[in-house]
Protein backbone atom coordinates (compact mmCIF):
# COMPACT_ATOMS: atom_id res chain seq x y z
CA UNK A 1 0.00 0.00 0.00
CA UNK A 2 1.50 3.33 -1.06
CA UNK A 3 1.46 6.62 0.82
CA UNK A 4 3.51 8.69 -1.60
CA UNK A 5 2.69 9.43 -5.24
CA UNK A 6 4.96 10.69 -8.01
CA UNK A 7 3.14 12.84 -10.54
CA UNK A 8 4.70 12.29 -13.96
CA UNK A 9 3.24 15.40 -15.54
CA UNK A 10 3.17 19.20 -15.48
CA UNK A 11 0.78 22.14 -15.65
CA UNK A 12 -2.81 22.22 -14.47
CA UNK A 13 -3.24 18.44 -14.37
CA UNK A 14 -0.20 17.96 -12.13
CA UNK A 15 -1.61 20.61 -9.76
CA UNK A 16 -5.01 18.87 -9.88
CA UNK A 17 -3.45 15.54 -8.92
CA UNK A 18 -1.40 17.07 -6.08
CA UNK A 19 -4.63 18.52 -4.68
CA UNK A 20 -6.38 15.13 -4.70
CA UNK A 21 -3.37 13.57 -2.94
CA UNK A 22 -3.38 16.32 -0.28
CA UNK A 23 -7.00 15.70 0.50
CA UNK A 24 -6.34 11.98 0.83
CA UNK A 25 -3.29 12.51 3.04
CA UNK A 26 -0.88 11.16 0.42
CA UNK A 27 2.63 12.61 0.06
CA UNK A 28 3.50 14.01 -3.37
CA UNK A 29 6.59 14.05 -5.58
CA UNK A 30 6.78 16.42 -8.54
CA UNK A 31 9.14 16.14 -11.49
CA UNK A 32 10.04 19.07 -13.73
CA UNK A 33 11.95 20.15 -16.78
CA UNK A 34 14.23 23.19 -16.90
CA UNK A 35 11.32 25.24 -18.30
CA UNK A 36 9.17 24.37 -15.26
CA UNK A 37 11.56 24.94 -12.38
CA UNK A 38 9.27 27.67 -10.96
CA UNK A 39 5.99 26.03 -11.94
CA UNK A 40 3.03 25.65 -9.59
CA UNK A 41 3.08 21.87 -9.58
CA UNK A 42 6.65 22.03 -8.28
CA UNK A 43 5.69 24.47 -5.52
CA UNK A 44 2.57 22.56 -4.46
CA UNK A 45 4.23 19.15 -4.16
CA UNK A 46 6.08 17.97 -1.05
CA UNK A 47 9.23 17.17 -3.04
CA UNK A 48 10.41 17.93 -6.55
CA UNK A 49 13.12 16.47 -8.80
CA UNK A 50 14.63 17.73 -12.03
CA UNK A 51 14.20 15.57 -15.12
CA UNK A 52 16.24 17.44 -17.72
CA UNK A 53 16.05 20.06 -20.49
CA UNK A 54 12.75 21.53 -21.65
CA UNK A 55 11.93 19.31 -24.66
CA UNK A 56 9.49 16.53 -23.64
CA UNK A 57 11.70 13.73 -24.90
CA UNK A 58 14.45 14.93 -22.53
CA UNK A 59 12.11 15.41 -19.58
CA UNK A 60 8.49 14.30 -19.20
CA UNK A 61 8.96 11.38 -21.61
CA UNK A 62 12.01 10.00 -19.79
CA UNK A 63 10.34 6.88 -18.38
CA UNK A 64 13.64 5.55 -17.05
CA UNK A 65 14.45 8.69 -15.05
CA UNK A 66 10.92 8.97 -13.71
CA UNK A 67 10.90 5.40 -12.41
CA UNK A 68 14.34 5.97 -10.95
CA UNK A 69 13.12 9.08 -9.09
CA UNK A 70 10.10 7.14 -7.81
CA UNK A 71 12.41 4.49 -6.38
CA UNK A 72 14.85 6.97 -4.83
CA UNK A 73 12.11 9.14 -3.33
CA UNK A 74 10.27 6.07 -2.07
CA UNK A 75 7.09 6.91 -3.99
CA UNK A 76 4.93 3.79 -4.18
CA UNK A 77 2.84 4.99 -7.11
CA UNK A 78 3.06 7.04 -10.29
CA UNK A 79 0.14 9.06 -11.67
CA UNK A 80 0.80 9.81 -15.35
CA UNK A 81 -1.93 12.49 -15.86
CA UNK A 82 -2.80 12.83 -19.55
CA UNK A 83 -0.49 13.00 -22.58
CA UNK A 84 3.22 12.18 -22.19
CA UNK A 85 3.45 8.62 -20.78
CA UNK A 86 -0.21 8.17 -19.85
CA UNK A 87 -1.13 5.75 -22.63
CA UNK A 88 2.13 3.90 -23.05
CA UNK A 89 1.64 0.24 -22.19
CA UNK A 90 5.42 -0.21 -21.96
CA UNK A 91 5.62 2.51 -19.28
CA UNK A 92 2.79 0.94 -17.24
CA UNK A 93 4.66 -2.35 -17.51
CA UNK A 94 7.99 -0.81 -16.50
CA UNK A 95 6.29 0.62 -13.41
CA UNK A 96 4.94 -2.80 -12.51
CA UNK A 97 8.37 -4.39 -13.03
CA UNK A 98 9.89 -1.76 -10.72
CA UNK A 99 7.31 -2.53 -8.03
CA UNK A 100 5.63 0.87 -8.42
CA UNK A 101 1.84 1.13 -8.76
CA UNK A 102 0.76 2.74 -12.05
CA UNK A 103 -2.34 4.83 -11.34
CA UNK A 104 -4.25 3.64 -14.38
CA UNK A 105 -5.28 0.46 -16.16
CA UNK A 106 -3.25 -2.71 -16.76
CA UNK A 107 -0.70 -2.62 -19.61
CA UNK A 108 -2.82 -5.14 -21.53
CA UNK A 109 -5.88 -2.83 -21.47
CA UNK A 110 -3.80 0.10 -22.69
CA UNK A 111 -2.36 -2.01 -25.52
CA UNK A 112 -5.75 -3.44 -26.54
CA UNK A 113 -7.33 -0.01 -26.78
CA UNK A 114 -4.20 1.63 -28.23
CA UNK A 115 -4.52 -0.33 -31.46
CA UNK A 116 -7.79 1.01 -32.86
CA UNK A 117 -8.45 -2.04 -35.05
CA UNK A 118 -7.90 -4.40 -32.10
CA UNK A 119 -10.14 -2.16 -29.96
CA UNK A 120 -12.90 -2.31 -32.60
CA UNK A 121 -12.71 -6.05 -32.87
CA UNK A 122 -12.59 -6.55 -29.09
CA UNK A 123 -15.58 -4.41 -28.17
CA UNK A 124 -17.50 -5.64 -31.19
CA UNK A 125 -17.13 -9.24 -29.95
CA UNK A 126 -18.55 -8.02 -26.62
CA UNK A 127 -21.68 -6.81 -28.42
CA UNK A 128 -20.78 -3.12 -28.67
CA UNK A 129 -21.88 -1.46 -31.91
CA UNK A 130 -18.98 -0.13 -34.01
CA UNK A 131 -19.20 1.85 -37.26
CA UNK A 132 -19.45 -0.62 -40.19
CA UNK A 133 -15.98 -1.12 -41.64
CA UNK A 134 -13.12 -3.58 -41.93
CA UNK A 135 -13.25 -6.44 -39.45
CA UNK A 136 -10.45 -8.17 -37.60
CA UNK A 137 -7.15 -7.12 -36.16
CA UNK A 138 -4.46 -7.95 -38.71
CA UNK A 139 -2.77 -5.70 -41.26
CA UNK A 140 -4.57 -5.42 -44.56
CA UNK A 141 -2.90 -4.82 -47.92
CA UNK A 142 -4.06 -2.08 -50.27
CA UNK A 143 -5.72 -4.52 -52.67
CA UNK A 144 -7.65 -6.13 -49.78
CA UNK A 145 -8.73 -2.69 -48.51
CA UNK A 146 -9.80 -1.71 -52.01
CA UNK A 147 -12.16 -4.63 -52.40
CA UNK A 148 -13.50 -4.16 -48.84
CA UNK A 149 -14.13 -0.48 -49.60
CA UNK A 150 -16.59 -1.47 -52.31
CA UNK A 151 -18.76 -3.46 -49.90
CA UNK A 152 -18.51 -0.87 -47.10
CA UNK A 153 -19.61 1.88 -49.47
CA UNK A 154 -18.73 5.57 -49.80
CA UNK A 155 -18.04 8.04 -48.34
CA UNK A 156 -15.68 6.27 -45.96
CA UNK A 157 -12.73 7.04 -43.73
CA UNK A 158 -9.24 5.62 -43.76
CA UNK A 159 -7.93 5.57 -40.19
CA UNK A 160 -4.56 4.67 -38.68
CA UNK A 161 -4.69 1.67 -36.32
CA UNK A 162 -2.07 3.36 -34.14
CA UNK A 163 -3.97 6.63 -34.44
CA UNK A 164 -6.49 8.60 -32.50
CA UNK A 165 -7.04 12.31 -32.59
CA UNK A 166 -7.52 12.33 -36.35
CA UNK A 167 -3.89 11.79 -37.41
CA UNK A 168 -3.53 9.61 -40.47
CA UNK A 169 -7.24 9.98 -41.19
CA UNK A 170 -8.52 10.52 -44.77
CA UNK A 171 -12.04 10.98 -46.09
CA UNK A 172 -12.73 9.09 -49.33
CA UNK A 173 -15.61 10.08 -51.63
CA UNK A 174 -15.15 7.51 -54.37
CA UNK A 175 -13.15 4.42 -55.18
CA UNK A 176 -10.86 6.21 -57.65
CA UNK A 177 -9.42 8.27 -54.80
CA UNK A 178 -8.57 5.20 -52.71
CA UNK A 179 -5.03 4.40 -53.91
CA UNK A 180 -3.61 7.89 -53.46
CA UNK A 181 -5.43 8.56 -50.17
CA UNK A 182 -4.35 5.17 -48.83
CA UNK A 183 -0.71 5.96 -49.41
CA UNK A 184 -1.12 9.47 -47.97
CA UNK A 185 -2.76 8.06 -44.81
CA UNK A 186 -0.09 5.37 -44.48
CA UNK A 187 2.68 7.92 -44.91
CA UNK A 188 1.21 10.24 -42.27
CA UNK A 189 0.63 7.35 -39.85
CA UNK A 190 4.16 6.09 -40.40
CA UNK A 191 5.56 9.57 -39.71
CA UNK A 192 3.39 10.14 -36.61
CA UNK A 193 3.35 6.70 -35.00
CA UNK A 194 6.05 4.71 -36.76
CA UNK A 195 3.27 2.41 -37.96
CA UNK A 196 1.60 2.75 -41.34
CA UNK A 197 -1.18 0.25 -40.72
CA UNK A 198 -4.71 1.46 -41.55
CA UNK A 199 -8.35 0.27 -41.46
CA UNK A 200 -11.62 1.51 -42.96
CA UNK A 201 -14.87 2.80 -41.50
CA UNK A 202 -18.01 4.09 -43.13
CA UNK A 203 -18.21 7.87 -42.65
CA UNK A 204 -20.93 8.90 -40.20
CA UNK A 205 -22.01 12.38 -41.26
CA UNK A 206 -23.27 15.20 -39.07
CA UNK A 207 -22.45 13.25 -35.93
CA UNK A 208 -21.81 14.48 -32.44
CA UNK A 209 -18.90 13.43 -30.34
CA UNK A 210 -20.20 12.17 -27.02
CA UNK A 211 -18.02 10.38 -24.51
CA UNK A 212 -18.83 8.39 -21.38
CA UNK A 213 -16.74 8.55 -18.20
CA UNK A 214 -16.06 5.15 -16.70
CA UNK A 215 -14.76 4.09 -13.28
CA UNK A 216 -13.70 0.51 -12.66
CA UNK A 217 -12.13 -1.09 -9.60
CA UNK A 218 -9.95 -4.17 -9.16
CA UNK A 219 -12.91 -6.12 -7.77
CA UNK A 220 -14.74 -6.12 -11.10
CA UNK A 221 -17.16 -3.26 -10.40
CA UNK A 222 -17.63 -0.90 -13.35
CA UNK A 223 -19.84 2.19 -13.36
CA UNK A 224 -20.38 5.13 -15.70
CA UNK A 225 -20.70 8.79 -14.74
CA UNK A 226 -22.80 9.86 -17.70
CA UNK A 227 -21.76 11.71 -20.81
CA UNK A 228 -19.74 14.70 -21.93
CA UNK A 229 -20.49 16.55 -25.15
CA UNK A 230 -17.22 17.30 -26.95
CA UNK A 231 -18.30 18.38 -30.43
CA UNK A 232 -16.97 21.93 -30.07
CA UNK A 233 -13.48 21.36 -31.42
CA UNK A 234 -11.16 22.60 -34.11
CA UNK A 235 -8.77 20.33 -35.99
CA UNK A 236 -9.35 17.63 -33.38
CA UNK A 237 -8.48 19.99 -30.53
CA UNK A 238 -11.40 20.26 -28.16
CA UNK A 239 -12.22 23.81 -27.15
CA UNK A 240 -15.31 23.39 -24.99
CA UNK A 241 -17.00 20.47 -23.28
CA UNK A 242 -20.26 20.23 -21.41
CA UNK A 243 -22.21 17.76 -19.34
CA UNK A 244 -24.94 16.76 -19.85
CA UNK A 245 -24.92 16.82 -23.64
CA UNK A 246 -27.64 19.20 -24.90
CA UNK A 247 -28.44 16.42 -27.36
CA UNK A 248 -29.10 13.96 -24.55
CA UNK A 249 -30.54 16.48 -22.07
CA UNK A 250 -33.04 14.80 -19.79
CA UNK A 251 -33.37 11.65 -21.90
CA UNK A 252 -32.33 9.50 -18.95
CA UNK A 253 -33.22 6.34 -20.82
CA UNK A 254 -30.71 7.12 -23.58
CA UNK A 255 -28.06 8.08 -20.99
CA UNK A 256 -28.41 4.76 -19.21
CA UNK A 257 -28.43 2.87 -22.51
CA UNK A 258 -25.22 4.40 -23.89
CA UNK A 259 -23.70 4.25 -20.39
CA UNK A 260 -24.38 0.52 -20.13
CA UNK A 261 -22.76 -0.04 -23.55
CA UNK A 262 -19.70 1.94 -22.43
CA UNK A 263 -19.47 -0.26 -19.33
CA UNK A 264 -19.56 -3.33 -21.58
CA UNK A 265 -16.75 -1.91 -23.73
CA UNK A 266 -14.59 -1.36 -20.62
CA UNK A 267 -15.34 -4.85 -19.34
CA UNK A 268 -14.24 -6.29 -22.70
CA UNK A 269 -10.62 -5.39 -21.83
CA UNK A 270 -10.93 -6.05 -18.06
CA UNK A 271 -10.55 -2.33 -17.53
CA UNK A 272 -9.46 -0.95 -14.15
CA UNK A 273 -9.33 2.73 -13.05
CA UNK A 274 -10.78 5.80 -14.82
CA UNK A 275 -11.33 5.75 -18.56
CA UNK A 276 -13.45 7.24 -21.31
CA UNK A 277 -15.38 5.62 -24.13
CA UNK A 278 -15.86 7.87 -27.19
CA UNK A 279 -18.96 7.49 -29.33
CA UNK A 280 -20.23 9.03 -32.51
CA UNK A 281 -23.94 9.75 -32.15
CA UNK A 282 -26.02 10.47 -35.25
CA UNK A 283 -29.15 12.61 -35.41
CA UNK A 284 -31.39 9.59 -34.78
CA UNK A 285 -29.45 8.77 -31.60
CA UNK A 286 -27.75 5.73 -33.12
CA UNK A 287 -24.37 5.48 -31.47
CA UNK A 288 -21.12 3.81 -32.47
CA UNK A 289 -17.98 3.08 -30.46
CA UNK A 290 -15.04 5.15 -31.75
CA UNK A 291 -12.20 4.56 -29.32
CA UNK A 292 -11.34 4.38 -25.65
CA UNK A 293 -9.03 6.77 -23.84
CA UNK A 294 -7.29 4.77 -21.16
CA UNK A 295 -6.47 7.73 -18.92
CA UNK A 296 -7.79 10.70 -17.01
CA UNK A 297 -9.02 13.32 -19.48
CA UNK A 298 -8.58 17.08 -19.70
CA UNK A 299 -12.34 17.59 -19.48
CA UNK A 300 -12.99 15.38 -16.43
CA UNK A 301 -14.10 18.40 -14.30
CA UNK A 302 -17.46 18.83 -16.05
CA UNK A 303 -18.37 15.32 -14.94
CA UNK A 304 -17.14 16.08 -11.42
CA UNK A 305 -19.31 19.19 -11.28
CA UNK A 306 -22.55 17.42 -12.21
CA UNK A 307 -22.01 14.13 -10.36
CA UNK A 308 -20.11 15.36 -7.30
CA UNK A 309 -17.60 12.53 -7.75
CA UNK A 310 -13.91 13.46 -7.39
CA UNK A 311 -12.52 11.39 -10.25
CA UNK A 312 -8.85 11.80 -9.30
CA UNK A 313 -9.47 10.73 -5.71
CA UNK A 314 -11.38 7.73 -7.05
CA UNK A 315 -8.36 6.88 -9.22
CA UNK A 316 -6.17 6.85 -6.12
CA UNK A 317 -8.58 4.70 -4.13
CA UNK A 318 -8.80 2.22 -7.00
CA UNK A 319 -5.00 2.13 -7.32
CA UNK A 320 -4.79 1.41 -3.58
CA UNK A 321 -6.93 -1.67 -4.15
CA UNK A 322 -10.12 -0.31 -2.62
CA UNK A 323 -13.48 -0.89 -4.24
CA UNK A 324 -15.52 1.89 -5.82
CA UNK A 325 -17.03 4.41 -3.48
CA UNK A 326 -20.25 4.55 -5.49
CA UNK A 327 -22.63 2.12 -7.11
CA UNK A 328 -24.41 2.94 -10.35
CA UNK A 329 -27.65 3.72 -8.48
CA UNK A 330 -25.81 6.33 -6.36
CA UNK A 331 -24.80 8.37 -9.41
CA UNK A 332 -27.13 11.29 -10.08
CA UNK A 333 -26.70 14.19 -12.44
CA UNK A 334 -27.33 17.56 -10.90
CA UNK A 335 -27.46 20.71 -13.02
CA UNK A 336 -25.18 21.60 -15.92
CA UNK A 337 -21.43 22.16 -16.30
CA UNK A 338 -19.45 23.78 -19.11
CA UNK A 339 -15.68 23.91 -19.52
CA UNK A 340 -13.84 26.37 -21.74
CA UNK A 341 -10.24 25.54 -22.53
CA UNK A 342 -8.29 28.77 -22.23
CA UNK A 343 -5.36 28.46 -24.62
CA UNK A 344 -2.39 30.68 -25.38
CA UNK A 345 -3.29 31.08 -29.04
CA UNK A 346 -4.56 33.85 -31.28
CA UNK A 347 -8.19 33.31 -32.32
CA UNK A 348 -7.90 36.19 -34.80
CA UNK A 349 -4.90 34.65 -36.53
CA UNK A 350 -5.75 31.05 -37.30
CA UNK A 351 -5.30 30.04 -33.64
CA UNK A 352 -1.52 30.11 -33.88
CA UNK A 353 0.12 29.37 -30.53
CA UNK A 354 1.31 32.39 -28.60
CA UNK A 355 4.33 32.33 -26.32
CA UNK A 356 5.65 34.80 -23.76
CA UNK A 357 5.40 35.84 -20.15
CA UNK A 358 2.08 36.21 -18.35
CA UNK A 359 2.54 39.77 -17.08
CA UNK A 360 -0.82 39.99 -15.36
CA UNK A 361 -3.80 37.78 -14.73
CA UNK A 362 -7.11 38.10 -12.86
CA UNK A 363 -9.02 34.88 -12.27
CA UNK A 364 -12.80 34.69 -12.22
CA UNK A 365 -14.20 33.39 -8.95
CA UNK A 366 -17.53 33.39 -7.14
CA UNK A 367 -20.51 31.03 -7.15
CA UNK A 368 -20.30 28.04 -9.45
CA UNK A 369 -16.89 28.89 -10.94
CA UNK A 370 -13.81 26.64 -10.94
CA UNK A 371 -10.47 27.41 -12.57
CA UNK A 372 -7.83 24.69 -12.94
CA UNK A 373 -4.53 26.25 -13.94
CA UNK A 374 -0.81 25.77 -13.68
CA UNK A 375 0.24 29.34 -14.50
CA UNK A 376 0.73 32.47 -12.42
CA UNK A 377 1.96 36.06 -12.94
CA UNK A 378 5.50 35.88 -14.30
CA UNK A 379 5.06 32.39 -15.77
CA UNK A 380 6.59 31.97 -19.21
CA UNK A 381 4.43 30.14 -21.80
CA UNK A 382 7.05 28.23 -23.77
CA UNK A 383 6.75 26.53 -27.14
CA UNK A 384 7.73 23.15 -25.67
CA UNK A 385 4.35 21.96 -24.39
CA UNK A 386 0.66 22.34 -25.25
CA UNK A 387 -0.93 25.79 -25.18
CA UNK A 388 -3.43 25.18 -22.35
CA UNK A 389 -3.31 28.07 -19.86
CA UNK A 390 -6.25 26.95 -17.79
CA UNK A 391 -9.64 25.33 -17.77
CA UNK A 392 -12.54 27.54 -16.83
CA UNK A 393 -15.42 25.43 -15.57
CA UNK A 394 -18.81 26.70 -14.47
CA UNK A 395 -21.81 24.99 -12.96
CA UNK A 396 -25.45 26.11 -13.17
CA UNK A 397 -28.78 24.60 -12.26
CA UNK A 398 -29.77 24.75 -15.91
CA UNK A 399 -27.85 25.05 -19.18
CA UNK A 400 -29.11 28.61 -19.44
CA UNK A 401 -27.70 29.53 -16.06
CA UNK A 402 -24.40 27.84 -16.91
CA UNK A 403 -24.07 29.85 -20.14
CA UNK A 404 -24.80 33.15 -18.41
CA UNK A 405 -22.35 32.26 -15.67
CA UNK A 406 -19.70 31.40 -18.28
CA UNK A 407 -20.26 34.80 -19.93
CA UNK A 408 -19.82 36.49 -16.58
CA UNK A 409 -16.68 34.50 -15.78
CA UNK A 410 -15.15 35.16 -19.21
CA UNK A 411 -15.76 38.89 -18.68
CA UNK A 412 -13.97 38.75 -15.32
CA UNK A 413 -11.04 36.75 -16.64
CA UNK A 414 -8.03 38.89 -17.61
CA UNK A 415 -4.80 37.54 -19.04
CA UNK A 416 -2.06 39.91 -20.18
CA UNK A 417 1.20 39.03 -21.90
CA UNK A 418 0.09 36.34 -24.34
CA UNK A 419 -2.69 36.11 -26.90
CA UNK A 420 -5.49 33.90 -25.64
CA UNK A 421 -8.78 32.51 -26.87
CA UNK A 422 -11.10 34.18 -24.33
CA UNK A 423 -12.64 36.32 -27.13
CA UNK A 424 -13.39 33.14 -29.08
CA UNK A 425 -15.30 31.70 -26.14
CA UNK A 426 -17.15 34.98 -25.61
CA UNK A 427 -18.35 35.00 -29.21
CA UNK A 428 -19.26 31.32 -28.92
CA UNK A 429 -21.42 32.11 -25.86
CA UNK A 430 -23.23 34.71 -28.02
CA UNK A 431 -23.81 32.30 -30.91
CA UNK A 432 -27.44 31.32 -31.33
CA UNK A 433 -26.57 27.86 -32.53
CA UNK A 434 -24.45 27.24 -29.47
CA UNK A 435 -27.16 28.63 -27.18
CA UNK A 436 -29.68 26.32 -28.81
CA UNK A 437 -27.33 23.35 -28.46
CA UNK A 438 -27.54 22.87 -32.23
CA UNK A 439 -24.03 21.94 -33.17
CA UNK A 440 -22.01 18.95 -34.34
CA UNK A 441 -18.29 18.30 -34.83
CA UNK A 442 -18.12 20.54 -37.92
CA UNK A 443 -19.59 23.60 -36.19
CA UNK A 444 -16.42 25.57 -35.34
CA UNK A 445 -14.64 24.87 -38.61
CA UNK A 446 -17.58 25.28 -40.98
CA UNK A 447 -20.26 27.40 -39.40
CA UNK A 448 -18.53 29.69 -36.97
CA UNK A 449 -16.16 32.56 -37.62
CA UNK A 450 -14.95 34.81 -34.85
CA UNK A 451 -14.76 37.76 -37.27
CA UNK A 452 -18.39 37.36 -38.30
CA UNK A 453 -19.50 36.84 -34.72
CA UNK A 454 -17.57 39.97 -33.76
CA UNK A 455 -19.19 41.77 -36.68
CA UNK A 456 -22.68 40.87 -35.52
CA UNK A 457 -21.88 42.03 -32.02
CA UNK A 458 -20.36 45.23 -33.41
CA UNK A 459 -23.26 45.94 -35.73
CA UNK A 460 -25.69 46.07 -32.85
CA UNK A 461 -26.53 49.80 -32.74
CA UNK A 462 -26.69 50.00 -28.96
CA UNK A 463 -23.15 48.71 -28.64
CA UNK A 464 -21.94 50.87 -31.54
CA UNK A 465 -23.25 53.94 -29.70
CA UNK A 466 -21.40 52.92 -26.58
CA UNK A 467 -18.17 52.41 -28.51
CA UNK A 468 -18.50 55.87 -30.05
CA UNK A 469 -18.86 57.30 -26.58
CA UNK A 470 -15.76 55.45 -25.52
CA UNK A 471 -13.65 56.84 -28.32
CA UNK A 472 -14.86 60.42 -27.86
CA UNK A 473 -14.63 60.56 -24.11
CA UNK A 474 -12.14 58.28 -22.50
CA UNK A 475 -13.30 59.43 -19.09
CA UNK A 476 -16.72 58.05 -19.81
CA UNK A 477 -15.21 54.60 -20.15
CA UNK A 478 -16.25 53.24 -16.80
CA UNK A 479 -19.79 54.59 -16.93
CA UNK A 480 -20.16 53.25 -20.44
CA UNK A 481 -19.11 49.81 -19.25
CA UNK A 482 -21.70 49.94 -16.52
CA UNK A 483 -24.38 50.80 -19.08
CA UNK A 484 -23.17 47.99 -21.30
CA UNK A 485 -23.37 45.56 -18.45
CA UNK A 486 -26.90 46.58 -17.49
CA UNK A 487 -28.02 46.28 -21.08
CA UNK A 488 -26.67 42.80 -21.15
CA UNK A 489 -28.24 41.83 -17.86
CA UNK A 490 -31.68 42.71 -19.14
CA UNK A 491 -31.27 40.67 -22.29
CA UNK A 492 -29.70 37.88 -20.29
CA UNK A 493 -32.77 37.69 -18.05
CA UNK A 494 -35.07 37.70 -21.03
CA UNK A 495 -33.00 35.06 -22.69
CA UNK A 496 -32.84 32.88 -19.58
CA UNK A 497 -36.59 32.90 -19.03
CA UNK A 498 -37.17 32.13 -22.69
CA UNK A 499 -34.71 29.28 -22.49
CA UNK A 500 -36.30 27.89 -19.40
CA UNK A 501 -39.81 28.07 -20.85
CA UNK A 502 -38.49 26.28 -23.92
CA UNK A 503 -37.07 23.46 -21.85
CA UNK A 504 -40.31 22.83 -19.95
C1 LIG B 1 -15.24 9.32 -37.48
C2 LIG B 1 -16.07 10.36 -37.96
C3 LIG B 1 -17.11 10.00 -38.78
N1 LIG B 1 -17.31 8.70 -39.12
N2 LIG B 1 -15.48 8.04 -37.85
C4 LIG B 1 -11.89 12.04 -35.51
C5 LIG B 1 -10.80 11.67 -34.57
C6 LIG B 1 -11.02 10.27 -34.15
N3 LIG B 1 -11.19 10.21 -32.71
C7 LIG B 1 -12.22 9.81 -34.87
N4 LIG B 1 -12.75 10.93 -35.59
C8 LIG B 1 -13.87 10.81 -36.35
N5 LIG B 1 -14.18 9.55 -36.70
C9 LIG B 1 -16.50 7.76 -38.65
N6 LIG B 1 -16.69 6.50 -39.03
C10 LIG B 1 -15.77 11.65 -37.58
C11 LIG B 1 -14.67 11.89 -36.79
C12 LIG B 1 -14.44 13.26 -36.46
C13 LIG B 1 -14.51 13.72 -35.17
C14 LIG B 1 -14.76 12.87 -34.10
C15 LIG B 1 -14.82 13.35 -32.82
C16 LIG B 1 -14.64 14.69 -32.58
C17 LIG B 1 -14.37 15.55 -33.61
C18 LIG B 1 -14.30 15.09 -34.92
C19 LIG B 1 -14.04 15.96 -35.96
C20 LIG B 1 -13.96 15.50 -37.22
C21 LIG B 1 -14.15 14.15 -37.49
Using brief descriptors, characterize the structure shown.
alpha+beta, Rossmann fold, Dna Ligase, domain 1, 4 domains, eight-stranded antiparallel beta sheet, 23% strand, globular
Largest beta-sheet characterization: 8 strands, antiparallel
Distinct bound molecules: ligand MV4
Radius of gyration: 23 Å
Look at the structure and give the mean pLDDT. Answer: 93
Write down how many β-strands occur, each being a DSSP E stretch of 2 or more residues. Answer: 22
CATH architecture of the largest domain: 2-Layer Sandwich
CATH level 3 topology of the largest domain: D-amino Acid Aminotransferase, Chain A, domain 1
> Going across the major beta sheet, what is the strand order?
13-12-9-10-11-14-21-19
Gross morphology: globular
Q: Name the structural class.
A: alpha+beta
What would you note in describing this structure?
The chain starts with a strand and ends with a helix. The protein is α+β, with helices and mostly antiparallel strands. 39% of the residues lie in helices and 23% in strands. The protein has helices at 11-24, 40-44, 63-73, 89-97, 107-114, 116-125, 142-152, 178-193, 252-267, 300-307, 311-319, 399-412, 422-430, 432-435, 443-447, 450-458, 461-472, 477-503, and strands at residues 4-7, 27-33, 47-52, 77-79, 101-102, 156-160, 170-172, 198-202, 208-216, 222-234, 237-243, 273-281, 287-293, 336-343, 345-346, 352-353, 356-357, 360-362, 369-373, 380-381, 388-396, 414-416. The model has no long low-confidence stretch (mean pLDDT 93). It folds into four domains: 4-103, 3-Layer(aba) Sandwich (Rossmann fold); 132-202, ATP-grasp fold, A domain (Dna Ligase, domain 1, 2-Layer Sandwich), CATH 3.30.1490; 208-440, 2-Layer Sandwich (D-amino Acid Aminotransferase, Chain A, domain 1), CATH 3.30.470.20; 469-504. The longest helix has 27 residues, at 477-503. It is globular, with a radius of gyration of 23 Å. It has 18 helices and 22 strands. The structure holds ligand MV4. Ligand MV4 binds at residues 131, 157, 164-166, 201-204, 207, 209, 233, 236, 280, 290-291, 441. Ligand MV4 binds next to strand 8 and strand 13.
Amino acid sequence: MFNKVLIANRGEIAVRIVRACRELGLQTVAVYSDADRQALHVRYADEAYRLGPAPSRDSYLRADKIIDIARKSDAGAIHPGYGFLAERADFAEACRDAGVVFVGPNPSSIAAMGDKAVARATVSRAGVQVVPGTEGEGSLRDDELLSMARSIGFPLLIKATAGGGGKGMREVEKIEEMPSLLSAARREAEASFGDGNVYLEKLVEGARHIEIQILADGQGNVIHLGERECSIQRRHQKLLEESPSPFVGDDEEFRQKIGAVAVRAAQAVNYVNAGTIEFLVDKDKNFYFLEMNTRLQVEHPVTEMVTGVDIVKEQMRIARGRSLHHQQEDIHHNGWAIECRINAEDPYNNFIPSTGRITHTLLPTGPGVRVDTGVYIGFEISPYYDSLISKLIVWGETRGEAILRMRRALEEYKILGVHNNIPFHQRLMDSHRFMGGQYDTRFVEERFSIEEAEESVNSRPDIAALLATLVAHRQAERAAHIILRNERDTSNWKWLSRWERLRR
